[in-house]
Design a protein that fits this description.
It contains 10 helices and 14 strands. It starts with 7 loop residues before the first strand and ends with a helix. Helix 4 packs across helix 5. The strands form 2 sheets. It has a 7-stranded parallel β-sheet with strand order 3-2-4-1-5-6-7, with helices on both faces.
Length: 364
């Protein structure tokens, strides 16, 4: 099942219980831009109700009712997506051009992202385009205080939709918006009433970046941080104690070596991934502008922009981390200078090994 060219874009819709996901989905499906969508809805509980409210052809709908999509039915999700594509190719269902996945309000979205990005059966057919998280303006502040799932849903989002702003006190809406900006400063932020929003605003805001993209600065949004620069790199932070989640931004002045970049990316996901909810970066890798996008252990394939978006050639990195200090992230940058000498196969170079060990210290 290989369809590298023209992969089907996937929009993941998440948000805590009662935040308005199904209402949003109904509104989106009524718009011409998403009229050719297939929908997967995960329902929590024995009796399915939400699927009766979704305005999409029955043959284009797949309802997973065996549990939470993020954990107990991950295998089912992979098979469902593969089966949906087989039916699309054979004509059993219409040839949909988009896929919308609505998770339960209790879902951790990361395993869903991991399935789409990493599973060999899916990654050549589907491409994750956007993660949309809804936050209820009436109850959202309390949910962020009490439920780690709500914090994680907001932290990994590309677009944050604040719902029910028409019935929430104005000062509560302002406070919630500020809290979400601190929690996830790189996300698009929209107020949504009754699920009404232009579908175009929820498509291509992050994963839609490509080698021709002119939106990288907007995607990084490092300008929203007050950078405190040092000799080689600078850092800043804005945070509130949302289950230990904090946002950091860095500049790194020196070009990064290719070997160092590869080591850093592999080690970051493998050894620090559980604590890194989001990583977005534009890195100067030996002069090339390389875009990095990761969610915990899920690392999207880095790509090189055709040109730098401006005159600034410094690397810029944005992290949303849980239970990590700025210095812990900063220490991993030691790997950027790693550049082992070229060796014959099977040869051992004590100096190169010592350099490797030294670079790895930052990940301890």
């Amino acid at each position: 099942m290989v369809l590298v060219a023209g992969r089907i874009p996937v929009v993941l819709i998440t948000g805590f219980l009662g935040s308005g996901k199904t209402t949003l989905l109904n509104r989106l499906l009524q718009q011409p831009a998403l009229a050719d969508s297939a929908v997967i809805i995960n329902e929590f509980g024995e009796i399915g109700i939400d699927h009766l409210l979704v305005s999409t052809p029955a043959e284009n709908m797949v309802l997973l009712d065996t549990g939470c999509l993020c954990c107990t039915v991950r295998g089912d999700l992979v098979e469902t997506l593969a089966d949906l594509q087989r039916k699309r190719e054979s004509g059993i269902v219409p040839r949909f051009g988009h896929l919308l996945i609505e998770t339960t309000g209790l879902a951790d979205p990361v395993p869903v992202l991991q399935s789409i990005v990493s599973d060999p059966a899916l990654r050549d057919v589907y491409v994750l385009e956007n993660v949309v998280s809804l936050v209820d303006a009436v109850n959202g502040d309390a949910q962020l205080d009490r439920h780690p799932e709500s914090v994680k849903q907001a932290a990994v989002a590309d677009a944050l939709l604040i719902t029910k702003t028409d019935i929430a006190p104005a000062d509560s809406v302002i406070a919630l918006k500020e809290r979400l900006r601190r929690l996830n400063p790189g996300a698009e932020l929209h107020e949504v009433v009754g699920g009404r929003i232009d579908a175009a605003k929820l498509r291509g805001t992050a994963r839609g970046l490509d080698r021709h993209s002119k939106d990288i600065e907007h995607w990084l949004r490092t300008a929203e941080f007050e950078m405190c620069e040092h000799r080689h790199h600078g850092a800043a932070e804005k945070h509130r104690h949302d289950s230990g989640v904090r946002a950091f931004a860095f500049y790194y002045d020196r070009p990064i070596r290719r070997a160092g970049f590869t080591m850093w990316l592999d080690m970051l996901a493998g050894l620090r991934g559980a604590n890194l909810l989001r990583v977005k970066a534009l890195l100067n890798v030996e002069g090339d502008p390389v875009v990095v996008n990761a969610v915990q252990t899920v690392v999207h394939e880095p790509f090189v922009l055709e040109r730098w978006p401006g005159e600034d050639r410094r690397s810029r990195l944005v992290f949303i981390a849980r239970d990590m200090e700025r210095e812990e992230i900063e220490r991993t940058f030691d790997a950027f200078d790693f550049a082992p000498a070229s060796l014959k196969k099977g040869a051992f170079d004590p100096a190169a090994y010592a350099q490797f060990v030294d670079a790895m210290r930052g990940f301890r």
